[in-house]
Amino acid sequence: MSALAVHEAAPAAGTAPGTARRPPLRRRIALVPTVTLLLGAVYTLLPVAWVVIASTKSGHELFSTFTFLPGTGFTDNIKDLDAYRGGVYWTWMGNSALYAGLGAVLSTAVSAFSGYALATYRFRGRETMFNVLLAGVLMPPVILAIPQYLLLAKADLTDSYLSVLLPQILSPYGVYLARIYASAAVPADVVEAGRMDGASEWRIFTRIALPMMIPGMVTVFLFQFVAIWNNFLLPYIMLSDDEKFPLTLGLYTLLEQGANTPALYTLVITGAFLAVLPLIALFLVIQRFWSLDLLSGAVKS
Amino acid sequence: MSSPTSRRGYGVKAAPYTFLLPATILFALFFALPIGYAVWLSFRKVHVSGLGLGSGARQEVWAGFENYRAAFQDSELLHGALRVLGYGCIVVPVMLGLALLFALMLDSEKVRLAPFTRLAIFLPYAIPGVVAALLWGFLYLPDVSPFYFVLDRLGLPQPDLLDGGPLYLALSNIAVWGGTGFNMIVIYTSLRSIPAEVYEAARLDGATPLQIALRIKIPMVAPSLVLTFFFSIIATLQVFNEPTTLKPLTNSVNTTWSPLMKVYQDAFGRNDMYSAAAEATLIAVVTLLLSFGFLRASNRRDKRAVSQGGAR
């Protein structure tokens, strides 16, 4: 927890340089930056606001009333969504949580092992391994997903939970972040001191290094959680049984059916609204103890 | 004390490889093997003998560069690449321009509501591309869109956003909306790693905030601009989700709109894995060449680039 607090405090120090010696005459708000940022926020929040309001409208209201006027059909929309194909929407949401939650935990573990090894040991082939892993970032996902599908088909694993879970565990970006955090957060002399005390390498990692790497690992977890939750292509290629669909794929199939039947629009809209809620909530909660800046690999030493 | 030095030495030597074992296995199974398999398939084709009936009538045979030749001559693939090029020419400058602008504004003094606006602009990062495309897709539909409502009331012409030239803008807007926040955070992080003393001197010399931004801040965050530019280009080349999601809403997005959609269509729509593999390999090679060319060019320009700034 103490490491978390350090990371939380660090960004605050840089936000307002020279606050104390500001001349009183110019103590007004910087208008141009504030207005520019507010316009940006309006732009990004507009579709979100729209979906919140649109999800309250009944099918009839959606086409007849002004867009930003709340409707009266919210509970009915939820009921309709709940009734759609025996509540398959909630299955999708559960699947997304499973893929993203379990996948991100496993991915964070693999990233932590690899990042720690790459940061603290000097060994033959270290840079080669790192570079080869990083090259994975450059591979277009479709190009990986199609042969992955064919190979998993040979192992009779397509259209299964594993087919979506397994290919997403190794994240080149996660390994990259973990390496940066490990080299910044785990001092070499601490590892050496552990060795002098006769601790095994595994024990040094779990008892000494891992606690120091936690803020970075929270970042890797979040990054992977969002990446898997948002992934569309891999399940699109791997799955055909809609009981195993994640939300993204489920909503897509709903839209595909609904495009020609405006009656289904409200279903799609309500589904989209409920789909963005968990991630927005996650970010708002996590914001309190985690800095966004860590996502870009920023490390305060 | 408890373990002899020689055993400990061995443990230390073996440890990194043990720690890297899970990543290595996963890399071999889900990166190396599929890539190798795709390359292998790209040199194969199905030879049909007779009417193509019976068990031995369809045989996989060596095709040499035939699939590649076909891919190079495929006008639809070329058109897809050109469409994505046009799309990228809008997305990358607009998205990075906005990201830089917002980052500079966040970094300026006496700005109000910065934490709120920062989070709001970052928010789309948490929204799946499919959902983003879906939300904007509805906002582009005349029947439900507030924009059309306003245009209608004002008696202005109402363009069809899901067709022709405007379609590029409509698709670009989705990417800009989704990507600006993340890039803003990357640039902003590196802005904040600039020591305050650097500005002090400039301020004493009477430099305006605009001059400070143009002459000091932007050059100092150049490495992170290079990085975001690089990743934006790669992401643009791989566009798939957004046009696929908009497809049900309009006839102007066909199944082969972007090169990756074409690959998907060949693989699963036409069931021609061999052509798809050749096209996929071709796209991967182009991506890698672009990446390495770009990295080399930017390294040559500024050797310090890699170590500078919060983000690489």
UniProtKB/TrEMBL annotation, chain B:
Membrane topology per record: Multi-pass membrane protein
Transmembrane helix recorded as keyword: yes
Family annotation (Pfam families): BPD_transp_1
Membrane-spanning intervals of the chain: 20-43, 84-107, 119-141, 167-188, 220-240, 273-295
Localization, UniProt: Cell membrane
Keyword Transmembrane helix attributed: yes
Keywords: Cell membrane, Membrane, Transmembrane, Transmembrane helix, Transport
Family membership noted in the UniProt record: Belongs to the binding-protein-dependent transport system permease family.
UniProt name for this protein: Sugar ABC transporter permease
Phylogenetic lineage: Bacteria, Bacillati, Actinomycetota, Actinomycetes, Kitasatosporales
